[in-house]
Specification:
HAD_sf, about 20% strand, Rossmann fold, HAD-IIA family hydrolase, six-stranded parallel beta sheet, about 325 residues, 19 strands, HAD-SF_hydro_IIA, five-stranded parallel beta sheet, alpha/beta, 3 domains
Length: about 325
């Protein structure tokens, strides 16, 4: 992990923020999100809300953000549906028929891109685009499979296997639904959402960001997407990823910074330095031996300890076991 001697809201011109698990969960605001984002805006950072969810239009997303205390309009929102529509518009003639296996978010994005959304395979559409829609039924999936089997280009808005389930277990996401058409036809979709690059590129294009910071709660979409796009990232622990998940992250899913929540945008982040045979951050030092054992000692901000411990866990060599990392985490009052 790197440090920043300036608050992240001052060091990066645009925050590309995931939504579920970062700003809200379902229709409930995440702790400290609204006030933190208001302060980041006041400090001059621009905010863009970047979502893999293709079921809502940008206007609907902006309305939900406003409902949870984060004022926004449609221009502040970038969706995987918009990234999918741009990819299709770049590959198909204007006005081409595209069979939509999804909801209004996809249809609106296709109209805006100059394409014609349709609902059946009868006219041999040029492409099929699939996005998450909670009311999606068998009939539309069957039409999509038929069109793909006849040669239509197959695009998926995102490949998330699950989505947050509120207070319960995760629900199946669009990645799980994509397997229906893929399994029936043997054709793998082109995916535009995180962690693939099209959505990141669309976000940078729409915001004009010079130094974007990707902010998210998932390693496999938000953080890997930042790595794929060559951007720095902030992992917040208000959603899917927990501290142990962070420590066991593979190289392509390791964030630049970590914080408990969006208040991490408002503060500097101390550097992790090699010292005393280990890694020191703030008042904490983490050490790892040749056998993979790891320990952290010290006092102060426990997230400094987590940063130090992550650096020790990610050091090349014998990887610590999950049990060893869990034992080390117990020393931190997170």
């Amino acid at each position: 992990m790197r440090g920043s001697d300036r608050p992240l809201c001052e060091a990066y011109d645009v925050a590309l923020l995931d939504l579920d698990g970062v700003v809200y969960i379902g229709r409930r605001p995440v702790r400290a999100a609204a006030e933190s984002l208001a302060k980041a805006r006041a400090a001059g950072q621009r905010l863009a809300f970047v979502t893999n969810n293709a079921s809502r239009t940008p206007s609907a997303v902006a309305a939900l953000l406003t409902e949870v205390g984060v004022p926004a309009d449609a221009a502040d929102v970038v969706t995987s549906a918009q990234a999918a529509a741009r990819l299709l518009a770049e590959r198909l003639p204007p006005g081409s028929d595209v069979l939509v296996v999804g909801g209004m978010g996809l249809r609106h994005a296709l109209y805006a891109a100059g394409l014609r959304p349709v609902s059946t395979a009868a006219g041999r559409p040029a492409a099929v685009v699939q996005g998450y829609e909670p009311t999606l039924g068998y009939g539309l999936l069957a039409e999509g499979a038929r069109a793909v089997a006849m040669g239509a280009l197959f695009v998926g808005s995102n490949g998330d296997l699950t989505i947050p389930g509120g207070d319960g277990p995760p629900h199946p996401g669009n990645g799980s639904l994509l397997r229906v058409i893929s399994s029936a036809t043997g054709v793998e979709p082109i995916v535009t959402g995180k962690p693939e690059r099209p959505l990141h590129q669309e976000s940078v294009r729409r915001t004009g960001a010079k130094r974007p910071l990707v902010v998210g709660d998932r390693l496999d979409t938000d953080i890997e997407g930042a790595v794929n796009g060559g951007a720095d990232s902030l992992l917040v622990l208000t959603g899917v990823t927990d501290p142990l998940g962070l420590l066991t992250a593979p190289p392509n899913r390791r964030p630049t910074y970590v914080a408990a929540d969006l208040r991490g945008l408002l503060v500097p982040h101390p550097e992790v330095v090699r010292a005393d045979g280990g890694y020191r951050c703030g008042g904490w030092t983490a050490r790892r031996d040749d056998g993979g054992a790891v320990a952290v000692t010290g006092s102060g901000d426990p997230y400094d300890g987590l940063r130090a411990l992550a650096s020790a866990a990610w050091e090349p060599g014998a990887e610590p076991s999950r049990d060893a990392l869990a034992d080390a985490l117990a020393a931190l009052p997170l």
